[in-house]
Design goal:
The complex is a heterodimer of chains A (141) and B (190). Chain A is mainly alpha-helical and 141 residues long. In chain A, helix 1 packs antiparallel against helix 3. Chain A is elongated and about 70 Å long. Chain A starts with a helix and ends with a helix. About 28% of the residues of chain A have low confidence. Chain B is built from eight helices and no strands. The N and C termini of chain B lie close together (7 Å). In chain B, helix 1 runs antiparallel to helix 3 and helix 3 packs antiparallel against helix 5. Chain B is mostly helical. Chain B is globular and about 65 Å long. Classes of the chains: A mainly alpha (141), B mainly alpha (190). At the A-B interface, helix 2 and helix 3 of A face helix 1, helix 2, helix 3, helix 6 and helix 7 of B.
């Protein structure tokens, strides 16, 4: 039963990785993907163009830009910045790519942690084995 | 009768703990969805962006209250013996909390549709906006790590409460049958 569960878990993990990869590829083809490590660059200050960037750090137009509202009539967007609507609540479905990218990012981070945890656990096990006394090691074996 | 009361009490307690996990799971999923939506103000529009932000603030407080026991115990054990993974997890959680608090506070400060007028001058408003954006960028990474650190818990509970794989149903039925048998035996003895 344990083996069956382990095999099921491995299969689920492989399917999950495949879905993350396919999702990333789909986002890239629809121009909604950006390098997740750009966020780090923004934080360490290598990307200086924070001004005018969206909340997820789109800085250089790599991801789909919001529709140009400069040609809108003045009364259409009262007291609002880009993307806003002071009256009522309406979703701008053309920007769904950004939301999908955020969801993908969360899954990709989970996949990243899963991958990293495998060698980390292996190293930890080896270190623990090294720290055991010969008697404990024999008992462990 | 006294022998029967104990298993019933234990069963009741178990039921309460299961529902707490369920509440945690659904709250976390709602928070995650709210978070990915709130990050895209171009998608939601400013009004909904701010409303989701405020709602998230409330949700995060509930999330913390639900995990208060764990937080307190981690704080006590942080500098003593503890697995490095738990320590890293705790540091990421603290950073996430601080980051989200910054986002919510600065967001309220620069709010345009909630009807809050703080009368900040333009330069302070601009600084708050920059801080809000930078913290948002950082938050996606932190929440990603937060999700990653808890993927086992998420996967097992999503499978249990949302996907309900046939294996789990069978397993639960088998568990219930054995429990009923134990109860009957206890009743016979008493």
């Amino acid at each position: 039963m344990k083996q069956l569960l382990a095999r099921k878990g491995l299969m689920a993990a492989i399917i999950f990785f495949a879905l993350v990869a396919i999702g990333g590829a789909a986002l890239a083809t629809s121009n909604n993907w950006e390098n997740p490590f750009n966020a780090l660059n923004t934080l360490v200050g290598t990307t200086s163009e924070i001004e005018g960037a969206g909340p997820t750090g789109e800085t250089d137009g790599e991801r789909a830009a919001p529709p140009d509202r400069s040609e809108m009539a003045e009364g259409e967007m009262p007291e609002m910045g880009e993307g806003g609507s002071a009256e009522g609540i309406s979703l701008s479905w053309s920007q769904i790519g950004g939301v999908l990218y955020n969801i993908w990012y969360l899954f990709a981070a989970a996949a990243f942690v899963m991958v990293i945890s495998i060698p980390v656990q292996f190293i930890r096990q080896q270190l623990r084995r090294l720290n055991l006394t010969p008697k404990q090691a024999a008992a462990h074996a | 009768m006294a022998t029967l009361a104990a298993p019933i009490k234990a069963q009741r307690q178990r039921r309460i703990s299961i529902s707490k996990t369920k509440v945690n799971l659904f709250l976390d999923i709602t928070l995650a969805l709210a978070f990915v939506l709130a990050l895209e103000e171009h998608f939601t529009g400013m009004n909904l962006h701010e409303l989701i932000g405020v709602g998230m603030g409330v949700g995060i407080i509930v999330h913390i209250i639900l995990h208060l026991k764990w937080i307190v115990s981690m704080m006590r054990r942080f500098f003593s013996k503890m697995f490095h993974e738990s320590r890293l997890n705790f540091v990421i959680n603290i950073l996430t909390f601080v980051d989200l608090a910054v986002i919510i506070v600065t967001g309220i400060g620069i709010s345009r549709t909630l009807g809050l007028e703080f009368g900040f001058d333009q330069s302070l408003s601009h600084s708050l906006e920059q801080l809000h954006k930078q913290a948002s960028t950082f938050s996606l990474m932190l929440i990603g790590l937060h999700v990653g650190m808890h993927w086992k818990w998420i996967a097992s509970n999503v499978r249990r409460y949302i996907l309900r794989w046939p294996f789990h149903r069978q397993h639960r039925h088998a568990g219930q049958t054995s429990k009923t048998i134990t109860l009957n035996k206890t009743a016979q003895h008493s």
